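Supplementary Text 2. Reproducibility record for the structural model of the 419-residue chain.

All settings were left at their defaults, and a single model was retained for analysis rather than an ensemble. We include the record here because the model underlies the residue-level annotations in Supplementary Table 4.
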Amino acid sequence: MSDKFQSIKGFYDILPADTALWQKLEDSAREVLSQYGYRNIRLPIVEPTELFIRGVGEHTDIVEKEMYSWVDQLNQDKLTLRPEGTAGCVRAVIEHSLTYNGPQRLWYMGPMFRHENVQKGRQRQFHQIGAEAFGYAGPDVDAEQIAMLARLWRALGVADEVELQINSIGDANERLQYRQTLIAYFEQHAELLDEDAKRRLHANPLRILDSKNPNMQAMIDAAPRLIDTLGEESRGHFDGLTRLLDQVGVQWKLNTRLVRGLDYYNRTVFEWVTTKLGSQGTIAGGGRYDTLVQRLGGKETTACGFGIGLERVFLLMQECAISAVQAPDVYLVNVGDAATAAALKLAEDLRDAGLAVSHHAGGGSFKSQMKKADQSGAPYALILGDDEVAAGLVCLKPLRESAEQSRMTLPEAIKVLQP
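Retained model, structure tokens:
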């Protein structure tokens, strides 16, 4: 007898016991995104490898170590399972000329793939909701997206457990000048750099600022700050963002070490973080990427976006004791030959009235069926026996309160069951 199959490490099943809370998270996000005028776009999970090399950055961890890539056997194309959503969304905007008639607000949801060390809150197949706004140059769209996330956290009941951290990393010329300053500073402290920092020093020195190595923290804290070297336009953009956030009552904290892990960002970068998930405390992050559309072959187009790590938000909701139940409005119990024959039609009549019905199938005693009715979470059991079929009646029994069951017509039962 062959061994049982198991899911691949880092790729996991979401079981029915958890899907109600997942659906609460996803449905809340859909509602909030719709309130802000963002429209859904559905993107493929496989893209050309070069899209991520040019978009995400050749010297990022994602491209260097984490992508699932292969050469297609049929036509020798180099392909990759998407490790993030922005590059694919930009590709779609360019390919279909979506900004031809004006700016666009878009959102997407689905699985992403990175070959990472598996731990709580970090899987190799994970899920994100992303939102991208194209064609908006001012800080107002940055503030809008941050306010949108703040509204989502309130809707989910986790707002008290998250903190907004923001920074500005300026424009390309400002980062280039700062890059040289930073390299010179780190070279003066070369003996304190770990191997990863030494590897990044000349390729991507800003990422050293994001190091979690405790032995380097004091040295990093003393490093020159990019925000102190910003030009007039970048500084004005950042000041405009903070004024707007203050106006709408979104609290924020300046984190001058915040740089994000992808090469395409400029000016605004932000993260929403929590202390309740240990090292996986970032639940959402984003910022501006005004040069990415042009870098990937499109016309110069300003843009801003973010990604939400759904697994981490799900864990945070659990930590906050937030629950959701997926239960039918009524559980249909049927005992007897005539009742069994009539039960399916009765269930369809109830569904026609807009009710969610769990119809017992497969026989069983009245006692066992009532036990399953209780386990279903339904507030009522609708009991149908041969006597009820003959009389044209049903019995309605409350399952979550002590009231007695009542015999009544189907229309009367529907009136009770309908919210």
